[in-house]
């Protein structure tokens, strides 16, 4: 464990710019991640299957493109974000609301260890013996958003911790991204509300990547031509369909008319190619190459 004081040169510059930065940070693991381009991914502890699927896809693809994923080690969306950010050797930072000797929730102690084993980073503003406390968790959310370029809110009920993090991000001048949800779904309340209030609506990880490219931020995009070819070696059965997808949008029905392949086979191929980050779905249910 290392202790970083606010006066130290290695104290994260992004945190110095927020209101009420921690006087001290207790750090385990890879401290270099604290200065990297990071995206916070937060959301409901009681995530729906839709939310879980979105969290898996976004955390995996954003980390693959060089973003460090920041979250709060809570159950639900936070746990998924940490786990899938490491799926393809990406990196993650967990911000605790307690001390290192009182990891909460207890069932995530395995995840805590896994993050450190995968060259990730765990931080907290609380000394090691500090127990969990309800009041600590809303406070730690300012660190989650403060370390990040922006916050992706996957799902959030009214008054939830994820919603608090997004609102803190707005106050800090950070970018807020929201995945739209059904209007009759409780976990979609705050994502839909924030979109109405001006948050960035996103439907794929590439939306966030493109946003920062347009902002002039250098993004380390890892899927180059050679890597795409390597990925396709494991997806040979989808090569014909992949070859039909370029920068001009094409739909599943158009692919069907060209190839006469069963629509179920086409749908499977499109799904797998999208999961691998080789293509992306755009409005109108069409596809272009990533």
Task: Tell me what you see in this structure.
- The chain is an alpha/beta fold and 290 residues long.
- The protein has 2 domains: 2-214, 3-Layer(aba) Sandwich (Rossmann fold), CATH 3.40.50.450; 225-289, Orthogonal Bundle (Arc Repressor Mutant, subunit A), CATH 1.10.10.
- The protein has helices spanning 13-16, 49-64, 77-85, 109-117, 136-146, 161-171, 189-196, 205-214, 225-233, 239-244, 252-259, 263-275, and strands at residues 2-5, 24-29, 38-42, 68-71, 92-95, 121-124, 150-153, 175-178, 200-201, 250-251, 279-282, 286-289.
- The strands form 2 sheets. It has a 9-stranded mixed beta sheet with strand order 1-2-6-5-4-3-7-8-9, sandwiched between helices.
- The longest helix has 16 residues, at 49-64.
- It is elongated, with a radius of gyration of 20 Å.
List keywords for this structure.
290 residues; Rossmann fold; Arc Repressor Mutant, subunit A; 2 domains; nine-stranded mixed β-sheet; three-stranded antiparallel β-sheet; 12 strands
In total, the number of strands is 12
What is the approximate shape? elongated
Mean pLDDT: 90
Give the spatial strand order of the biggest sheet: 1-2-6-5-4-3-7-8-9
Please trace the helix and strand order, writing H or E for each element. Answer: EHEEHEHEHEHEHEHEHHHEHHEE
Strand content: 15-25%
CATH top level label of the largest domain:
Alpha Beta
Structure classification: alpha/beta
For this structure, the CATH topology of the largest domain is Rossmann fold
Radius of gyration: 20 Å
Query: Which CATH architecture of the largest domain is right?
Result: 3-Layer(aba) Sandwich
Main sheet properties: 9 strands, mixed
Helical content (DSSP H or I, runs of 4+): 25-40%
- Beginning-to-end CA distance, first to last residue: 40 Å
In DSSP terms (H or I, runs of 4 or more residues), the helix count works out at: 12
* Integer count of domains: 2
Uncertain parts: none
């Amino acid at each position: 464990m290392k202790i970083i004081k606010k006066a130290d040169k290695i104290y994260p510059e992004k945190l110095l710019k927020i209101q009420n930065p921690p006087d001290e940070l207790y750090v385990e693991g890879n401290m270099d991640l604290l200065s990297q381009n990071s995206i916070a991914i937060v959301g409901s502890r009681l995530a729906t299957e839709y939310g879980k699927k979105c969290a898996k896809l976004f955390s995996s693809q954003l980390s693959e493109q060089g973003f460090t994923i920041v979250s709060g080690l809570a159950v639900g969306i936070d746990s998924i974000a940490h786990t899938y950010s490491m799926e393809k050797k990406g990196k993650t930072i967990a911000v605790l609301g307690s001390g290192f000797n009182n990891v909460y929730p207890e069932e995530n102690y395995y995840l805590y260890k896994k993050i450190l084993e995968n060259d990730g980073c765990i931080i907290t503003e609380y000394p090691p013996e500090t127990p969990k406390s309800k009041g600590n968790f809303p406070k730690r959310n300012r660190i989650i958003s403060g370390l990040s370029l922006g916050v992706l809110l996957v799902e959030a009920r009214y008054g939830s911790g994820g919603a608090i993090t997004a609102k803190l991000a707005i106050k800090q001048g950070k970018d807020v991204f929201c995945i739209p949800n059904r209007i009759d779904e409780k976990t979609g309340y705050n994502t839909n509300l924030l979109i109405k209030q001006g948050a960035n609506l996103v439907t794929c990880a590439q939306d966030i990547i493109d946003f920062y490219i347009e902002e002039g931020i250098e993004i380390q995009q890892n899927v180059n031509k050679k890597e795409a070819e390597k990925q396709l070696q494991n997806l040979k059965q989808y090569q014909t369909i992949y070859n039909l997808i370029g920068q001009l949008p094409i739909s599943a029905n158009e692919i069907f008319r060209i190839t006469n392949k069963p629509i179920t086979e086409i749908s499977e191929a499109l799904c797998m190619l999208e999961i691998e980050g080789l293509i992306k779905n755009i409005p109108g249910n069409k596809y272009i190459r990533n």
